[in-house]
């Protein structure tokens, strides 16, 4: 199996995996970065969202061989103490129910706010509609994004 | 204060203490995993020694308290609310509380189930008693140490004080003596008016861990030397596996083993698999290699029963309703004569399709089976049922099977059924190694224990003064009828008839969040909306008139609701939503429903935007008795509303020759951000009634209120779910 050198959360990692292995499974099975979740495997639910050079992507669709030297950030690398403004806003609004989709929601919301610091309701709907929350915490997610956008 | 008899004895504590010692471990410190509420900086120092006061409470020598949450956590937030009840009676500062998930212990805890919205209702007394008993023992130990009577002491925030003196004693300092005290035979519970913690808003104890991506879920569980496993089930209900290209699969990279596994258990129970008993299992090193091996499977299947189609399903249910096979389950007065006499009669038929649960975390389980034991760890709503089924499957005594619970990425009823845990055990046994079984989304959606499909006809008769004088409901489903014959409007109308019958299917079905109520509330509440319209009455006033009848002079011997509380939530939602006030561009619908011991009324406001309905606001009025964790309770109701609206609007699972036609989120529609209500406000009826649950009751009325608001917005009545067909949405 080929060896890949990946830049994840500011650190280099060497992994030996098949070239078509999705980043999701490199993170979860090889690197034990378990905050990135598996939901559908076809880029339709957003549970596996990470940052690829700062942009939100679905890690289940990105083959390890296509990453090269690009910088990947996962939920574990979003902040050192769990105190990113988006994470703090999520806690302030006590958003999670089951919690499973929330790391993907947070990664997607963070990328949105980086690109668009003052999103409208419509901007939030457009940016977040690829992230499913089966528990239905959508109203609180929107409130948390607005809270974070004011910081 | 209320005095109650304790039901503890020393032996039961020791049993749980021993079990708790070998609890759930996921490769990171339980302290960083479980410190509650993100208040670590304020909490007391980590203790050197812990003292088990009882099976719910452990007190450290620094005063830090661990409370075990007995029930499975599926997102209903019992891991926070159940310990809150213990902490209230224990009288301890919540900032100094750590919460841990308790292991399955049928000898000590009662009802370790996440189902039927019953955790809080059934746990209420036991949790209060656990806290009050420990508090009493700490007080008695202090009284003994100081040579005073307990009555001379007072306690607040984990500090015991002498009423007429200066001495104080922290729980951490007296815990070592408290564990040696006799368990009191009787303890005093607090007066409800003295509650300090209950009814406030406490943050989710796992909140910080969730937003930082800590490994909390079953899918995150790892054990050194563990292999991964996947299964392939038949492609269609009615099929069975014959054989597969075993040698080819075993030769693939990273694959150790492949075989057909049999999961049938002797004398299967309610939670055991009723469909696929034999599956292809593949064991390997990595998830991706297993997924590739699954794609390379060439399996021969054989049809062993009918391969069913969705069109036939509807015809079959229609046939049942038209047949003479309906079972009369309740009759008041003379419905037949009353319908003949009625000046207006209205009849409408409602349906809903099969639905998968689609928890975001797909089914998975860890199993380590040896000759003499089985250890299972993972997401289950019914750990006790799983323990029993694994014991039967393996022929092991029940005490040699252990089950530990992880946090769950959703339940909705799917994880009441134990097939995936049993499969993990069967695979671990056959391959001779600890394994973790993982379902793909496709496995999860097409090997379901689905919400049954339903078809129900309602009929109402009004007299010349627009009084409801006759009502009938006749329902069937694949396979169960959704009719609740003793629920509203039974008891409010002199001539009433309920009939039901089941319709055969080989599609496997089971409980899905608010079983039957999710359909019945939508159908009944939109039918009543139409009846009110026919009567020329406001929909809320029309219902309140019926409740007045049920309060003053109920019909029949048994009515499964409290008409005053039912009317109470309607009145509250009427007030809060300013019902009756005209709001330009806003179309409103209302519904109320009682199920799982709680009452909820909802008003939905819709505006038409670009020709499409947009939900602007949902108003909810809830009577669940005492509210334990206020903001979390609101979150639960909000989630139920979104769930109810989403599935009624968009979701359905269809079948062609036994094969589910939707198998992932590209073809199966779940509600998304842009379709969610813009705002959901929740109000509670304030009372001192013992608390009931909220996992389910917020969902059912949303379906009725939605259908009624859609009618106001579009002029069309919605009888068949999903209300928005793919064609409507895509244009």
UniProtKB/TrEMBL annotation, chain A:
Gene Ontology molecular functions: 2 iron, 2 sulfur cluster binding; metal ion binding; oxidoreductase activity
PROSITE patterns membership: 2FE2S_FER_1, 2FE2S_FER_2
Residue span(s) of domain 2Fe-2S ferredoxin-type: 2-78
Keyword Ligase: no
Key words, A-Z: 2Fe-2S, Iron, Iron-sulfur, Metal-binding, Oxidoreductase
Name of this protein: (2Fe-2S)-binding protein
Biological source species: Aestuariibaculum marinum
Automatic annotation (TrEMBL), chain B:
Transmembrane segments: 12-31
Stored PROSITE patterns: TAT
Molecular function in Gene Ontology: oxidoreductase activity
Residues in the signal sequence: none
Keyword Transmembrane helix: yes
Gene3D superfamilies, A to Z: Aldehyde oxidase/xanthine dehydrogenase, a/b hammerhead, Aldehyde oxidase/xanthine dehydrogenase, molybdopterin binding domain
InterPro entries: Ald_Oxase/Xan_DH_a/b, AldOxase/xan_DH_MoCoBD1, AldOxase/xan_DH_MoCoBD2, AldOxase/xan_DH_Mopterin-bd_sf, N-heterocyclic_Hydroxylase, OxRdtase_Mopterin-bd_su_IorB, TAT_signal
Domain Aldehyde oxidase/xanthine dehydrogenase a/b hammerhead: 212-305
Assigned keywords, A-Z: Membrane, Transmembrane, Transmembrane helix
Superkingdom of the organism of origin: Bacteria
Keyword presence, rRNA-binding: no
Pfam families, sorted: MoCoBD_1, MoCoBD_2
PANTHER family with a match to the protein in the record: ALDEHYDE DEHYDROGENASE
Name of the protein this chain belongs to: Xanthine dehydrogenase family protein molybdopterin-binding subunit
Species assigned in the record: Aestuariibaculum marinum
């Amino acid at each position: 199996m080929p060896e890949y050198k990946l830049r994840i959360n500011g650190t280099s990692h060497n992994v030996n995996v098949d070239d078509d292995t999705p980043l999701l499974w490199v993170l979860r099975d090889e690197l034990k970065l378990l905050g990135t979740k598996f939901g559908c495997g076809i880029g339709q639910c957003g549970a596996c969202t990470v940052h690829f050079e700062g942009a939100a992507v679905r890690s289940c669709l990105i083959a390890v061989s296509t990453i090269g030297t690009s910088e990947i950030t996962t939920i574990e690398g979003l902040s050192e103490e769990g105190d990113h403004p988006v994470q703090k806003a999520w806690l302030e609004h006590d958003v999670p129910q089951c919690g499973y989709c929330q790391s993907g929601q947070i990664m997607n919301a963070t990328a949105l706010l980086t690109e668009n610091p003052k999103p409208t309701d419509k901007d939030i709907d457009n940016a977040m509609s690829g992230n499913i929350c089966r528990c239905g915490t959508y109203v609180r997610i929107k409130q948390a994004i607005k809270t974070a956008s004011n910081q | 204060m209320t005095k109650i008899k304790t039901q503890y004895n020393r032996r039961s504590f020791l049993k749980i203490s021993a079990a708790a010692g070998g609890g759930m471990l996921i490769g990171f410190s339980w302290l960083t995993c479980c410190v509650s509420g993100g208040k670590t900086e304020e909490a007391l120092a980590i203790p050197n020694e812990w003292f088990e006061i009882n099976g719910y409470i452990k007190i450290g020598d620094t005063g830090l308290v661990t409370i075990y949450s007995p029930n499975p956590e599926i997102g209903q937030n019992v891991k926070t609310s159940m310990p809150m009840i213990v902490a209230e009676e224990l009288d301890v500062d919540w900032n100094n509380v750590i919460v841990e998930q308790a292991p399955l212990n049928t000898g000590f805890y009662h009802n370790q189930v996440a189902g039927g919205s019953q955790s809080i209702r059934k746990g209420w007394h036991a949790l209060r008693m656990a806290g009050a008993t420990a508090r009493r023992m700490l007080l008695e130990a202090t009284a003994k140490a100081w040579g005073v009577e307990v009555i001379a002491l007072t306690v607040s925030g984990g500090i015991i004080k002498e009423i007429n003196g200066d001495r104080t004693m922290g729980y951490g300092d007296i815990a070592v003596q408290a564990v040696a005290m006799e368990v009191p035979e009787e303890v005093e519970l607090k007066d409800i008016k003295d509650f300090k913690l209950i009814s406030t808003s406490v943050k989710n104890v796992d909140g910080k861990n969730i937003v930082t991506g800590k490994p909390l879920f079953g899918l995150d569980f790892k054990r050194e030397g563990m292999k991964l496993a996947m299964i392939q089930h038949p492609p269609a209900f009615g099929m069975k596996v014959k054989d597969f290209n075993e040698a080819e699969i075993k030769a693939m990279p990273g694959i150790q083993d492949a075989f057909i596994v049999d999961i049938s258990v002797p004398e299967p129970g309610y939670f055991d698999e009723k469909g696929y008993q034999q599956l292809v299992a593949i064991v390997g090193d990595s998830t991706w290699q297993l997924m590739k091996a699954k794609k390379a499977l060439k399996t021969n299947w054989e049809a062993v029963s009918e391969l069913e189609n969705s069109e036939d399903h509807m015809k079959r249910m229609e046939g049942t309703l038209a047949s003479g096979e309906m079972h009369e389950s309740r009759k008041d007065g003379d419905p037949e004569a009353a319908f003949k006499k009625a000046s207006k009669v209205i009849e409408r038929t409602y349906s809903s399709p099969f639905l998968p649960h689609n928890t975001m975390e797909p089914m998975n389980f860890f199993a380590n089976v040896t000759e003499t034991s089985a250890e299972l760890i993972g997401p289950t709503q019914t750990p006790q049922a799983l323990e029993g089924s694994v014991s039967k499957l393996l022929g092991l005594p029940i005490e040699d099977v252990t089950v530990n619970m992880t946090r769950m990425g959703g339940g909705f009823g799917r994880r009441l059924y134990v097939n995936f845990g049993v499969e993990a055990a069967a695979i671990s046994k056959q391959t001779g190694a600890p394994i973790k079984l993982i379902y793909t989304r496709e496995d999860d959606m097409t090997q379901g224990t689905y919400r049954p499909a339903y078809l129900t006809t309602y009929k109402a008769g009004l007299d010349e003064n627009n009084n409801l004088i006759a009502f009938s409901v006749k329902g069937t489903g694949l396979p169960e009828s959704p009719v609740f014959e003793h629920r509203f409007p039974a008891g409010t109308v002199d001539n009433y008839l309920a009939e039901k019958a089941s319709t055969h299917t080989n599609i496997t079905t089971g409980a899905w969040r608010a079983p039957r109520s999710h359909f019945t509330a939508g159908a009944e509440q939109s039918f009543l909306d139409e009846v009110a319209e026919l009567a020329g009455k406001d929909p809320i006033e029309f219902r309140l008139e019926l409740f007045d009848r049920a309060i003053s002079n109920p019909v029949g011997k048994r009515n499964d609701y409290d008409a005053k509380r039912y009317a109470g939530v309607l009145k509250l939602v009427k007030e809060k939503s300013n019902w009756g006030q005209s709001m330009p561009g806003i179309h409103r619908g209302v519904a109320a429903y009682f199920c799982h011991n709680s009452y909820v009324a909802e008003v939905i406001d819709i505006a038409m935007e670009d020709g499409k309905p947009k939900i602007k606001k949902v108003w909810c009025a809830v009577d669940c008795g005492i509210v334990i964790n206020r903001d979390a309770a609101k979150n639960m109701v909000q989630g139920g509303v979104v769930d109810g609206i989403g599935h009624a609007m968009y979701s359905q699972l269809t079948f062609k020759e036994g094969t589910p036609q939707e198998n992932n989120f590209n073809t199966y529609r779940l509600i998304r951000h842009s379709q969610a209500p813009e705002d959901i406000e929740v109000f509670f009826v304030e009372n001192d009634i013992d608390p009931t649950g909220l996992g389910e009751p917020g969902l059912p009325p949303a379906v009725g209120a939605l259908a009624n608001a859609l009618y106001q917005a579009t002029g069309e009545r919605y009888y068949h779910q999903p209300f928005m067909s793919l064609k409507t949405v895509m244009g």
